[in-house]
Structures are given as C-alpha cells and as structure tokens.
Amino acid sequence: MAGLGKARLGHGAAAIGGAPGAARRETAAERQARRIGRDPRLWEREMLVKMEDPVAGEMYLPGATIKMSKTPGRIGPVPTPGQHTDEVLSRLLGYGRTTLDELRRTKVIA
To answer: Are residues 109 and 103 in contact, defined by beta-carbon separation less than 8 angstroms?
Structure first.
C-alpha cells in the first residue's frame, strides 16, 4: 500500500480517477450484477424477487435462498422507518400510550 500512496502523490483527483462527468469504464462487478439479474433460472427459483417498497418503489431483492419442503422461506416487504416503533416500545419495554405520545411530542421518536 505504501507504493500506491507514493504513486498518487502529486496527482489530482482527475488524473487518478478521471475528470468528473467524463465517461468511465464499467467495472467487473457492475457487469456481473447485470448478467446475474438477467439469468432466468434465478427468477424461476425465486432466488431474485421483485418487491414494491413504499419509499423506494420497485426493488429487486434476494429471495429465500434455502428451499425446504415443510418450512418454506418467505419474503415480505421491507419495513418503513418507524413502522414498528410503538409495537416494540410497548411490547418489549412496557411503554404505554401516554409515554409514547410524550416521546413523540419531544421528538425522541417519530
């Protein structure tokens, strides 16, 4: 790593990584991800699934990778921030409605 630091010494960001806005070459990881996303076998076996997210819109996510006949995996929606706050604080910590309202009023929770 020391050699890499010396190699960069005296060069600006444009010389090292290309000028901002300039065309850049696609990385191997980007090519691989695109190729994997087009593999029909992964979609047929539900290794990749399409989900609707209320914030991000349509998302492509890994499915249940382990397939079991008696206990099949299940993929559900990603929770939104704060979606389970009241349930967690009341069930696990015993907070009542008054306490939750006070925490919300003082902006401790949303």
So the answer is: yes
Give per-residue burial for 17-48: e unless 16+ CB within 10 Å, then b. Answer: eeeeeeeeeeeeeeeeeeeeeeeeeeeeeeeb
d(CA 90, CA 97): 8
φ/ψ of residue 47, rounded to 5: -75, -25
Tokens representing 84?
Answer: 């389970």
Length of the chain: 110
- Distance separating alpha carbons of residues 83 and 91, to the nearest angstrom: 14
pLDDT band at 34 (very low <50, low <70, confident <90, very high): confident
